[in-house]
Design brief:
The chain is an all-alpha fold. It has helices spanning 5-21, 26-39, 44-56, 60-74, 80-89, 93-100, 110-126, 130-137, 140-143, 151-164, 168-181, 189-196, 204-212, 218-231, 239-246. It has 15 helices and no strands. Residues 213-259 have low confidence and may be disordered.
Length: 261
């Protein structure tokens, strides 16, 4: 449906902010999506954006309702995999598995079908069916040497399932293949490989902090103390505030992300 120009501009601005913030600050993106929803709840793109914002903040029931509304408005099955993943988020993997067998899956494009396979494998793991999850991921898309936008995530999910099954050598091989395909850093395959190889990363900032904590010889400490007293200062003043300020920084959350799948 069409909106008056001024209203359309307001809605558009909020949707732009949703898209801009959904990865780095999903809660803020969710807040913008609610504004857009209040302004234009009968627009499919708004319902879809609200669904993804709710999904990013793990409000799965709300996300599912928005995705269903968008699907009714457009008639498209594009959101079918993420709807199934919402069922997983709500603790209903059986429903996700049922959706994986519905006719809608056959209407998905290749990327959507791969996404549905990832969701189905996740549902199998949710139900404790690890071997079935591994088999679910085995597909022509997994075996192909061609690299697509979903290749890294598919290989990563397969490697992770293999590792969970205790098949470490195979898992290392597939984490390596995932890393080869991961051009935009969508997975942490490199970290998983390093972990398997026993490599530990040293935090440079942590080293600096450790240096600050170096024990000062007693004579030097006494000299410093005397100098502080001479200048009328108290070395403890403000330390708590500084520590609190340093601890105030927060970052965006997520599993899930990523899509959970």
């Amino acid at each position: 449906m069409s909106l008056p120009k001024t209203l359309a501009e307001d809605v558009s601005r909020n949707l732009v902010m949703v898209a801009r913030l959904i990865d780095e600050d999903p809660e803020q993106a969710y807040a913008y999506s609610r504004i857009a929803l209040r302004l234009a709840s009968r627009v499919a793109a708004v319902r879809e954006a609200a669904g993804f914002a709710a999904y990013a903040t793990q409000r799965y029931s709300e996300a599912l309702a928005e995705f269903r509304a968008a699907k009714r408005m457009t008639g498209s099955v594009e959101l079918w995999p993420v709807m199934a993943d919402c069922e997983r988020g709500l603790g209903r993997p059986e429903r996700a598995m049922a959706m994986a067998g519905e006719p809608e899956v056959q209407k998905l494009d290749k990327a959507g079908q791969v996404e549905m396979r990832l969701v189905a494998a996740g549902a199998r793991r949710d139900m404790g069916q690890l071997d079935a999850a591994i088999v679910t991921l085995q597909s022509p898309e997994l075996a192909s040497s061609a690299v697509h936008p979903w290749t890294a995530r598919l290989r990563y999910a397969y490697a992770d399932a293999l590792l969970a099954a205790g098949r470490e050598d195979e898992a290392r091989e597939w984490f390596g293949k995932a890393l080869e395909a991961d051009k935009d850093g969508s997975t942490d395959a490199s970290d998983r490989l390093a972990e398997l190889d026993g490599v530990e990363f040293v935090d440079a900032l942590g080293d600096d902090e450790d240096e600050d904590d170096t024990v000062v010889p007693a004579a030097a400490a006494d000299a410093d103390k005397g100098e502080d007293e001479k200048n009328g200062t108290d070395e403890d003043t403000g330390k708590g505030d500084a520590a609190d300020s340093a601890a105030d920084g927060t970052g965006a959350g997520d599993e899930n992300d990523t899509p959970r799948a």
